[in-house]
Predict the structure.
Amino acid sequence: MIDLKLLQKDFAGFSAKLMRKGVSEALLNDLKEKNETLKIAKVAFEELQAARNAMSKEFGVYKREGKDINELKARIDANNVKVDAALEVQRQAQVALETLAMTVPNAPDDSVPDGADENDNIEIAKVLTPKEFSFTPKEHWELAEQNGWIDFERGVKLATSRFSVSFGMGARLERALINFMLDFNRERGFEEVSVPALVNRQALEGTGQLPKFEDDLYKMDGLDLFLIPTAEVPVTNLYADEILTADELPIRMTAYTSCFRKEAGAAGRDTRGMIRQHQFHKVELVAMTTPDTSEAVFTQMVGCASDILTALELPHRLVNLCTGDLGFGAAHTTDIEVWLPGQNQYREISSISNTRDFQARRAKIRYKNGKKNEFVNTLNGSSLAVGRTLVAIMENNQNEDGSIDIPKVLKPYLGM
RNA sequence: GGAGAAGUGGGAGAGUGGUUGAAUCCGCGCCCCUGCUAAGGGUGUGUAGGAGCAAUCCUACCGAGGGUUCGAAUCCCUCCUUCUCCA
């Protein structure tokens, strides 16, 4: 949730930031107006309510003293009609404002470059150099099928398109990767947590997937429960509605979950292979901390994800997302793209975002700063998407005969 | 699945219609006294929103949402959660 107080206080400044993210001026004006309307409605209601409280108190005194209450009762009744009306006005104003405000994305940081889409993202750094192949490297689905690691047809048979099944070393590598990543993150100070794969509406509103992106979520029939699109949702919401103490911050967590996405807007993209699946494994990093330390934690998280790829000897690059490619809740995001020789391009494998207080404001995650309660900053990032990591290993470590070298760091996890 | 009980502030725990936003204890903050591996005294201590330079004041919140009432933590209804007993 954006800071409506800030919008009210510095409309020009704050709305300029939101307009960089494509929020229309008309919407912002509407928002400002609805906020003012609510304020006025609240004051009106509260004044009437105060009058009622005072008269009710008086009523008690009258009764005790045995005075005649008829005249007072008449006044109270008249006032109550107004109270009810004012309450209704206030309610409607509240709903109108919230409905609108919940659909407004986070304001990008000033450091975020302007741009329309992923083509305008700015490369920050390259890590490791892609190796030269003496043959034409194959794409991962070919390698996966040749090695018997992944069966795409049987996934479709069991569910529908964009589902796959891993067999043998393919399945074992996935498990090894998950364990390796969790251990790696834990050694960097992220506590491992295991969370539900189903969450309620409130949780998804807290992290910003709802109300705007319901189309991309799997919803349980007849229940207000959804399959998580990322562990970010349950893990961030662990502390929803809580007031933390400053000395327990930063809270840093890592979690492995399956993730479920309808990929509603991705028809026709990456239909082949396991780049874009409806269900995929991911190890996630989530942190909540004070505003003055969130950038340090952010840097650590990016380092964590990048270092995992380095440990796996996978060439990758860091990219600063432009305004057009930035997610709904992010103030700024660094993507990590891994080199895929089969595709001859870098592909996203991790996305690390600082949402500042955007999610905290929605989920009401606060901390005691001296006497005052303030919103924490929440951060999240993948470290990493397991399927895509497996893809990268296959494509980067392939030999001419189609065999694949197992990364050194994973061998202990495979009993090798 | 059936029967019952309960959900109050950081914690424990009072409170069954009216100066109760909530006694008391513990914890925590500050001050004082005292001085040695202590203890005592005083005082303060929820959240959100609004008015005001400020002191302060107003409104809402006692699991959630409705209802009854001039007035509800207190009565009624629905839901959620927890516990106990039964299947």
Remarks:
- The mean pLDDT of chain A is 92.
- Chain A has two domains: 4-101, 118-414.
- The CA atoms of residues 25 and 309 of chain A lie 42 Å apart.
